[in-house]
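Supplementary Data S3. Sequence and structure tokens for construct A.
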Amino acid sequence: MLLRVDSSLRLAIQPPCFRVVLALFIVVLTVAGCDSAPGPDPMDASAPRIANIQVSPDVLALDQIGGEGDTVTAPITVSADVSDDDDDLVTFFVVVRSALAGQLPLAQTELPIAGSGRMQAVLDLTVSRAESGRFTVSVFASDVQGNLSNVAYHVIDVSATSEPPSIVQVIMADRVTRPAAGEPPLNIPLVVEAFDPDGLDNIAFVQVIVNGGTTLRLCDDGGQAICNAGFGASSGDATAGDGLFTLTIQLDSNNAAGTNTFEFSVVDRSGLRSATEVRTIVVE
């Protein structure tokens, strides 16, 4: 069987307007206005630059995190590219703020920078179990002369409770006939209609395990070959972003007759998994 598969879901987010205040020898950095990521340009041409910020995890379902009490603590990894023409970088700053305006940072750190490159910081984020919303992560850097970089933003979506995704229906043939020798392969679409109570953007991937072995992904990419690279030009998906995830397999005259088993499941961005739906195709 040859294949095509799952799209990589991205949430395009415009960074919120807010004012970042960090005490560094009583230096106050003010970000005015709503700039699109990675933030306003440095004030000086020789100032450091921040790019390609990543945050993991960027979705937190607090009821899925262990521990006791009214608060929960989770480690957050923040990384970004830091560069400077003068190569006199000093400090890498990370600040995490809640969805409520005017609140003190929930977590913050500053790390020394040895030189241009990829920087990474791990922060312990402690929040109330009842808290939810879109938390803002801001990253910037300074150099020896006190020049401050642009500010790069990311968000963490926090929910007090979360439910797993589910499979609404699986659409596929249950019996097919092999093409005769010399005839073109038969395309067989496997379609899963997926649902997530937090929205389709919260679905990380839809997968199928074939005959208990090979694991493949289904795509909601409009047939643009975004997922399952190497399995052909198209997943066979009709419309991107409609919640119908598709994988197109091919049956040719050389395939063996018999029953093939397909186990479908949906996984969200916090790792919650749907119940597994099992289907079979009898090849004649």
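Construct B, processed identically:
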Amino acid sequence: MTFQASASTVPPCPVCQSTATEGFFELRDMPLHCNLLWESREKAMEAPRGNMELVFCRGCGHVYNGAFQPELMEYSEQYENSLHFSPCFQGYATELARRLVDRYRLHDKHVVEIGCGKGEFLVLLSRMGNNQATGFDPSYRHGRTPEAAGDRVRFVQDFYGTRYADQAADLVVCRHVLEHIRDPRGFLADIRQTLNGRSETAVFFEVPDTMFILRDLSIWDLLYEHCSYYTMQSLTALFELSGFRVTAVESVFSGQFLTIEAQPCATTRDSITGSLGIPEEVQDSVDRFAGRFQQKVETWNGMLREFHLSGHRVVVWGAGSKGAGFLNMVPGAHRVECVVDINPHKQGKYMAGAGQPIVSPDALREYEPRAVLVMNAAYLDEIGRMVGDMGLAVELLTV
């Protein structure tokens, strides 16, 4: 899974433009979209694929896919990544919205969300502070939030850009979008331009925490869709190099996400040379990652083989990115016959690349699996309660 590439074939770091980079890991033939679900097993198995060649930047600590091809990506109404059907995630999102409303005194203000998905978080921000709100996302589906908040919330099925500079906002929110952007400096420059003369406006971004993948070995979070993997150091560097003053950076949601808060500043830094120290833990995690990845894949491949030889059924719980990653990375995952998800908009569809049908939790009563593979430990208690309420005697295994 390791690779070596000459400096001439690896694009410079998209954050700091450094060429002091090293390729350290590769994955072949991964589905382009993990959250684009399919109407049949055959179509799911034929989902378009791409290669991942992970590169580490020694200048700012960033990780990125040197083989990413942005022209292959397409986001439409069929893209389904909403997590708000989970009470656990609802609790996190609600507390986050309350914190932002309180911190930035968002009452009777205007909030803009870039990449609002189906609009659930934007509606929370609107309701909590009686705020006007505008969400931008080409994958937004009209009718998914009919109770949105009256005429206070507006959705635009488009990518945000400088043409929307007239949308004067008191807070700009962007959650789980930046990791999809090939040119993050250009993306933030556009946002910075829309905020000219509005130095009091704050921005709040949330991205996956790359150390959760590298250090804690959440390897199923490696997605072709994610061309950038941010460490705390590279995320800070990106905003400082893009004309923002960083006010806070935090690791949240059991270490799975990073959040950053910033405001536009008058000057833009041209370089981070000599001002950024990359912790040894980051380099060490990069150096050890390929071997640890292979070991984890082999462990789960062996466990699935043992369940199969014992005649025991196994299901995956979680049809999101982690579930798709697991089913496409573990060779023996074809032995998993179905995937459970509480999102009704995923049920009846099929997993990209792997082809398993997505079913509701109620289907477990008839299927009677021996074990349920929980793709995200954050939801273990929630899933345990649901399985217990159904009276099922199954083993819950966090993956």
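The chain has a mean pLDDT of 90. The longest strand covers residues 21-31.
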